[in-house]
Amino acid sequence: MWTVDGFCCFGLETFGKIVGWLGVLGSGFVISIIVIGMVYLSNLSCYDIRDLDHALTEPYTRAFGLYDCESIFGAYIVILTIVIAIYILSFVIYFLLLRGISNQNHKQIVPVLVVEALGLVYIVLKMLLNLSVGSVIGGLIMGSLNFYSFTALYSLYIKIKNASRRGVVNVQFNKTPNV
Questions:
Q1: Is 179 within the bounds of a domain?
Q2: How confident is the model at residue 179, as a pLDDT?
Q3: Residue 178 lies in a domain
Q4: Model pTM above 0.85
Q5: Which of 44, 69, 115, 125 has its CA 20 to 30 A from that of 155?
Q6: What is the DSSP string of 46-95?
């Protein structure tokens, strides 16, 4: 597998910290918004829930046999709970990245590598299934950035892993990329 010395103008450790903090803050923000939405949803009357359902997803809720407001409300809560669980997992994964960088523990970087690889597979599959000009161009651009990001995080993983094998503590990474 290829390795790189940095991501654009950032060193590997700095790039990993940027990705980690963006992931932690982004996940925390989405969790907060969804919790606020769930509190708002719990304060709605049955009439309001029917209006919300009619405006958003009435064909879907009718297809699943959700005719009364209690079952519609329950379906919204279940869906939002699943989304919160996914974002909590995302929060933990990016927190592990930050912790792995600060503690020089390569094993804590592996979950982010898995997420990045799954993101790359998703982009490629989406591009291949749509096969429109815009989808192919967007998929190539996003896929290239995702692959570069994955390669940088993988390079960080390899450097920390090699440093831990040699018994080096607090490895100092090259802060400026080689030109």
A1: no
A2: 47
A3: no
A4: no
A5: 125
A6: HHHHHHHHHHHTHHHHHHTT--SHHHHHHHHHHHHHHHHHHHHHHHHHHH
